[in-house]
Structures are given as C-alpha cells and as structure tokens.
Amino acid sequence: MIQVYAIEDGELKDLPHSKLKKEDDLQRWIANDPSVLGLDILVLGREISTDFRGRIDVLGLDAEGNLVVVECKRDQTPRETIAQLLDYGSWVAALSTKQVHELAITKLGRPLAQAFMERFDSDLPEKLNTTHSLIVVATEFDASSRRIVEYLAQVHQLSINAIFFSSFNHAGQDLLAIEWLLDQEEVVQRAESKTSAPWTGLNYVNIGESKDRNWDDMREYGFISAGGGPRYVGSLQKLAPGDLVLSYQKKTGYVGFGSVLDTAVPVDQFTVAGRPILESPLRATDFGHDVGDASMCEFVVRVKWIKTFGLSEAKTFPGVFANQNIVCKLTHPATIEFLKSYFPISASD
Are residues 147 and 206 in the same domain? Predict the structure, then answer.
C-alpha cells in the first residue's frame, strides 16, 4: 500500500489514509485528464456499452491508434475486476477500424481523425486497433491478483496492468497518490512484440524540434534531448552506450542515425569539449528551461552521429513509422528497408 509522509518541523509525519468522497470522482478525473495516470490517450468516452451487457469505465485511443480500456474497481473483488477486464478486452479486440470510427463519432460528436489531430498533432493511422491495452485502477490488490496480472503480462505478453491509488488528507487538502504495478511502457512493448517483426537493435527517437530544442544544435554538438516532465524523459533515460538511434521529426521525416555514447544527464551537466553546453552558441532559445529542476529540465544524451540530414532533406514515405513516444524500438520492416537507402544501418539488422 502506498504511504505518504508530510515533513513538519524537520520530522516525518505519517499521513493517514482517507476515503474518496465519491468513487465516481476517480473515473471522472481519468476521463477529463488521463495524464493523471501517466496515460497519453485520446478519451473516446465513459461508460461505453459492450455487446456483453457490460460498461467500460473509460475507453481511449493511444497515439498509435490502439484502444485502451481503463476499469476502476469499486465493490468487486480484485479477481472479479480482472475477469471483467478480460471480458471487455475480448469485445475491444474484435472492433474493426470502421467500428472504432463509428464509436468515436457517436461519443465525440466529430470525426475521429479531427479529434486525433487535435489531441496528438499527427495524422490518424489508417489501420486502428491492431492491439489493445487493459488497465485496472484499484486501491489495492491481494497477492494472488497481482500474480495473475504479472503472469498475463510477463508470460503471455498481454498488455494488462494495474494502477493503485491511495487518498490522503493533510491540512484540509485532499491528496491522491498513484503507483503502477508494472512498467507500462515495457508491458506495451512486450505485447506489441508478438505481432511485430523481431527487433533489429534500432531505436526510434522523436527529436521534437521546438524553442526547447533544435535539430541543428543536436547535429553540431552531438546529442539528443527531451524535457518537460518524467513522462517525456523516462524512455530517454533508458538509452545506454552503444545503442543505435534513428532520429525523427514529426510531420517531416527521419534526419539522423547515430550511436549513443553516454547515458542521459540534466542539461546543466552536459558539456561539449569541456565547456557547459549552455555556454555554447545555441539556436534553441529555451534549451535551458527549468534548469536545476530535475523533474522538468531538459535531459541530454551524447550521441556520435554517423549520418545526418537537415530538416529540409528529411527522409519519409507514405506509411512511414512514426510514434508519439520520445524513444521506442523500431521494428517496422518497410521503414527499416526504406532507411537503409539513406543511412548505413545494414550492419545492425
């Protein structure tokens, strides 16, 4: 069970657990802002009726066009909730691309492509729901239920996970703490590996050209970066020396191929030729945003670029692999074959 402490007069004070005034509040909070759970999804609706007389608490669509089921455990036992979640999964898995579009029109009142563009600032994938994710939200699980979720996710590579929440009250302020049972990114990647081509060792990296970071700076000083919160930096921090990366700029194409030299560090700790990079001439006007705040500042990974192109020369084609994640495994065969014509990546396949 999650425990939270307040620091008062230099001492730790154990905050007692409290109960949500309305359990429906949690479902509403998730639907209004799924990022409270760390989820980057477009919410299609609440209380979605299935063909099995059940109602999905929250149904969303992720940046790759796959459905995400979120179920909040209320008065059911953990095992009953897992069984219900799997039942919903069997219904979701059967939904075609056409049916997902029809569901979105009904629930959102506008075309899915429009809502998707507004949410992710990218085009809706042509084929939807090639896989799906199941998430149960609960105050706690017994040991047996935890083992069931872990077994389904780790052995059978089903994209299923649990989020535990605890509510507290301190000085008249209601607090909510959230914890995942498993690393959600790893759960999704394992599930996708069942239907994807074997990983070649290539990593897709979203460079995110903006005032915070500039591709020409990355080319000149040898790095990739991300910032703005743990959800953006987390996957970048998993890159290790020797990892191969292909950099992509949204709506533009692939622009670089290189090898990671060092793990991620906060921007104020990154140096170029012994000099702090923030003292170097930079094109990015706000590369030093939130410096000193490890939760929000830019994190930088040193890269040895093997071949790069300017943004105006980016390499792309209709149907090229693109993803909202900062870093993910690149397994898309057509994209890899296409990029071999422009980058020396043959040795890595």
Answer: no
Tokens 């890159």, residue located: 239
Domain count of the fold of the chain? 2
DSSP string covering 23-80, please? THHHHHHHHH-GGGGT--EEEEEEEEE-TTS-EEEEEEEETTS-EEEEEE--SS-HHH
Chain segment 290-325, per-residue pLDDT in tens: 999 998 999 999 999 999 999 999 999 988 888 778
**Do 18 and 141 have their domain in common?**
yes
Contact call for residues 78 and 141 (beta carbons, < 8 A): yes
Are 228 and 287 in contact by the 8 Å Cβ rule? The answer is no
pLDDT digits (tens, 9 = 90+) for 155-204: 888 899 988 887 777 777 777 777 788 877 777 777 766 665 667 899 99
Separate counts of helices (H) and strands (E) for the chain: 9, 18
3-state secondary structure of 314: coil
> How many of the other CB atoms lie within 10 Å of CB of 190?
18
Task: Supply the pTM of this predicted model.
Answer: 0.68
The whole-angstrom distance between residue 237's C-alpha and the CA centroid of its chain comes to: 14
Task: With H, G, I as helix, E, B as strand and everything else as coil, classify residue 263.
Answer: coil
Same domain, 313 and 210: yes
Residue type, 210: S
* Domain carrying residue 97: 5-193
Enter the tokens of residue 133.
């994710």
Q: CB neighbours of 14 closer than 8 A, spacing ≥ 6?
A: 3, 5
